[in-house]
Design a protein that fits this description.
Largest sheet: 5 strands, parallel
Shape: globular
Number of domains: 1
Number of strands: 5
Number of helices: 10
Structural class: alpha/beta
CATH architecture: 3-Layer(aba) Sandwich
Strand content: 5-15%
CATH class: Alpha Beta
Order of helices and strands: HHEHHHEHEHHEHEH
CATH topology: Rossmann fold
Length: about 280
């Protein structure tokens, strides 16, 4: 293993838009093949994940466990098809790997799992844990003198978990500058619209009250995503990007439809989705 920290990829906005479009197709195909999975939240978050891989993450497909690498922690681990599609697009996985999604002993499990998948640094399952994990990685970097960065992706429904706010308070207390949170604010969670389950109120004010610097963006505008990433890298203190997204983005019948939080399309729906994502 080399001593040099991996370099980040610097893709143009147009390149990232094209990559995200291809990833959307792979997301729907994975869920259709498995006849199971979480397409809605994968389609809402994919632009954010592609933006991170294409503009800032210092990672390497040839050395996925490099100690100096940045960490992308997908706390909303059920959105694994988005992660796998991006890992395929950036050279960590091949097409055969994607066909193993939700298969017994497959490399692409239903929730992201660091034991199975190259490039995955956090095993998802129960929600609310990813930020605490990301803080641990960030503090470890400070103690060992490494400058790796923790990027933690949360869902807005996930922010109903108390552990999120304990971790948010801890990050501010420790003045961590090597951790950034991105919240996929798509307005829908497992059972229904987020505000039907528990009103979240002003997320920006909540994070700011815990000592975080906050930026609010359109989570499907790749220019805004790239600008927010650069903002977080030059801003002192823990930063959070509130990315306003559409659940099921890109597939008409999935958009803002709670039933596609965790449901595969049927044959006719799949055909329509592929046409719309062409």
């Amino acid at each position: 293993m080399s001593d040099n920290t991996p370099e980040f990829t610097d893709k143009s906005v147009d390149e990232l838009v094209d990559i995200a479009r291809g990833c959307r197709r792979e997301i729907v195909k994975m869920v259709k093949r498995a006849n199971a999975g979480h397409p809605g939240g994968s389609l809402s978050v994919i632009d954010l994940i592609v933006g991170l891989y294409g503009r800032t993450l210092r990672v390497s497909p040839t050395e996925p466990k490099h100690p100096g690498r940045d960490r992308l922690i997908l706390s909303k681990g059920h959105a694994s098809p988005a992660m796998y599609a991006a890992l395929h697009a950036f050279g960590f996985l091949d097409e055969t790997d994607l066909h193993s999604y939700r298969m017994f002993n497959g490399i692409c499990q239903g929730h992201v799992d660091s034991k199975w998948t190259p490039g995955v640094d956090f095993s998802g399952g129960s929600l609310g844990m990813g930020l605490s994990f990301g803080l641990g990685v960030a503090i470890s970097g400070r103690l060992t003198g490494r400058d790796h960065h923790s990027w933690v992706i949360l869902g807005d429904g996930e922010c109903q978990e108390g552990e999120i706010w304990e971790a948010a308070m801890a990050a501010s207390h420790h003045r961590l500058e090597n951790v950034t949170v991105i919240v996929d604010v798509n307005g829908i969670q497992n059972d229904d619209f987020v505000d039907q389950q528990m009103v979240m109120g002003d997320l920006s004010a909540k994070w700011a009250a815990f000592g975080w610097k906050v930026r609010d963006i359109n989570g499907h505008d790749m220019t805004e995503i790239a600008e927010a990433i650069e903002w977080s890298k030059t801003t002192v203190g823990p930063c959070v990007i509130l990315a306003r997204t559409t659940k099921g983005k890109g597939v008409s019948f999935m958009e803002n439809n709670p039933s596609f939080h965790g449901k595969a399309p049927d044959d006719e729906e799949f055909k329509l989705a592929m046409e719309e994502l062409a």
